[in-house]
């Protein structure tokens, strides 16, 4: 009896089995080896010893064991003089746009200064006696999410006051791709400070490098800038983040849909603030042809939500299966086509939509009846130009 064919088949099964085991081991090893910048204290503690430090952080400034970075630094005898808090505050529970008071951190007694409202940029007197500004915030990777604007102002203030900025890098949940209209200078604001697309495909550390390298700070000044890089990070892989980055982005679903749905914030359409599904649904009292119904009501993180108490008709995207690596314009176009309100235009009168888009072209294209493909084709040249800039500052592999 000839056993060779059976032996060959058995050998093939064994090889396949061990191949899968090796792949699984490699994936687990990669996951286990991943570390944020905050979880690499051996790299940054020596830079902070015997220095006076200000830290820009919020509830996402956590280490892998859920220790707050501020608490860890205090325990390691780092002299923290000030905590600077971005939009939503140090504990991350303030509404979008809500004024946040200065105060004291109850646990450590360290003064907290808000970098929002009228004080978006640290003042010279707030930086007096500081040697280093340490920055550790989980970003979302979208131009109109304001944490990158806070980083820009911090870098600018540091450059003007001869201080060093150290960024502890964290994953970008929308890394590995770029999409959307590139901002035009006349629409610069706190929700868009630089000529970048809506999705720019850089971590916070890489983004600061680009701002510095391209001399985008006022008068072309440059900050002394250091990135504590992540370990085992890949730009197209998706990672669990430390905590929700803001009250209305409570989970991966909302973060996944955020770049596509946030445009509605410049329209008469709700994105579900004041419901259990913020940035996972959309709707309006004037889009009655759409199938899903909800009514925004005051809640934590949405004390007076848009369209408060009004029955809205729209779509529920909370079970949307795709891991979006593109902007989806179909929901925006569908809402516009189904909007029926003779008293109010679809777009808000203040044209906040144009600030979000970074241009007035997208609004005009929607009004003109352009398709999603036609609109996206109009972004191609600007995206190619931005990609050439972006490529110079990429620190991590795909």
Task: Report on the architecture of this protein.
With 398 residues, the chain is α/β, with parallel strands linked by helices. The protein has 2 domains: 37-241, 3-Layer(aba) Sandwich (Rossmann fold), CATH 3.40.50; 252-367, no CATH class. Helix content is 30%, strand content 12%. It has 11 helices and 10 strands. It has helices at 4-33, 41-48, 69-75, 147-160, 204-213, 252-261, 330-338, 352-357, 361-367, 372-377, 380-390, and strands spanning 52-57, 79-85, 103-104, 111-114, 132-136, 164-168, 224-228, 281-284, 292-294, 312-316. It has a 7-stranded mixed sheet, with helices on both faces. The chain has a 3-stranded antiparallel sheet with strand order 8-10-9, with no helix packed on it. Helix 5 links the parallel strand 6 (164-168) and strand 7 (224-228). The N and C termini lie far apart (52 Å).
Summary of the model, kept short:
Keywords: Signal. By secondary structure, the protein is α/β, with parallel strands linked by helices.
Question: Can you lay out the helices and strands and say which pair or pack?
Answer:
Elements: H1 4-33, H2 41-48, E1 52-57, H3 69-75, E2 79-85, E3 103-104, E4 111-114, E5 132-136, H4 147-160, E6 164-168, H5 204-213, E7 224-228, H6 252-261, E8 281-284, E9 292-294, E10 312-316, H7 330-338, H8 352-357, H9 361-367, H10 372-377, H11 380-390
Parallel strand pairs: 1-2, 1-5, 2-4, 5-6, 6-7
Antiparallel strand pairs: 3-4, 8-10, 9-10
Unreliable parts: 5-29
CATH superfamily of the largest domain: Uncharacterised protein PF07075, DUF1343
The helix-and-strand class reads alpha/beta
Q: Under CATH, the topology of the largest domain is which?
A: Rossmann fold
CATH class of the largest domain: Alpha Beta
Q: Strand order, main sheet: write it out.
A: 3-4-2-1-5-6-7
Number of domains: 2
* Second CATH tier, the architecture of the largest domain: 3-Layer(aba) Sandwich
Form type: globular
Amount of beta strand: 5-15%
Give the H and E element order. Answer: HHEHEEEEHEHEHEEEHHHHH
Average predicted local confidence, pLDDT: 91
Largest sheet: 7 strands, mixed
GO molecular function: peptidoglycan beta-N-acetylmuramidase activity
Signal peptide: 1-26
Domain Peptidoglycan beta-N-acetylmuramidase NamZ N-terminal: 53-252
InterPro entries: NamZ, NamZ_C, NamZ_N
